[in-house]
Design the sequence.
């Protein structure tokens, strides 16, 4: 597969109770998935905020997508990108 992938990890708060929902847990899950499927990970982005307006990692990732530094974003759950269609737009 020739596409490059971005991994995006977001926790609503810096302190997350469930280990797999933490930033490190998401990173580990996504990294293992990418390795298992032979995916080329270009960069990993992190945010610890629930508001779309305070997510510098997400903003940087979108800018790099526009430059076609990667073609696909991997997340552990779609709500890591946006909680609703308004934010997702």
Sequence:
């Amino acid at each position: 597969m020739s596409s490059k992938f971005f991994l995006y990890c977001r926790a609503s708060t810096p302190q997350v109770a469930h280990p797999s929902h933490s930033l490190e847990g998401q990173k580990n899950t996504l990294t293992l998935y990418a390795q298992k499927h032979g995916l080329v990970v270009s960069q990993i982005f992190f945010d610890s905020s629930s508001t779309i307006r305070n997510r510098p990692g997400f903003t940087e990732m979108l800018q790099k997508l526009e430059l076609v530094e990667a073609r696909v974003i991997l997340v552990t759950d779609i709500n890591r990108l946006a909680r609703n269609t308004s934010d997702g737009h």
Q: What stands out?
A: Strands lie at 4-10, 40-47, 72-74. The chain is about 35% helix and 20% strand. The two ends are 28 Å apart (CA to CA). Residues 84-89 have pLDDT under 50 and may be disordered.
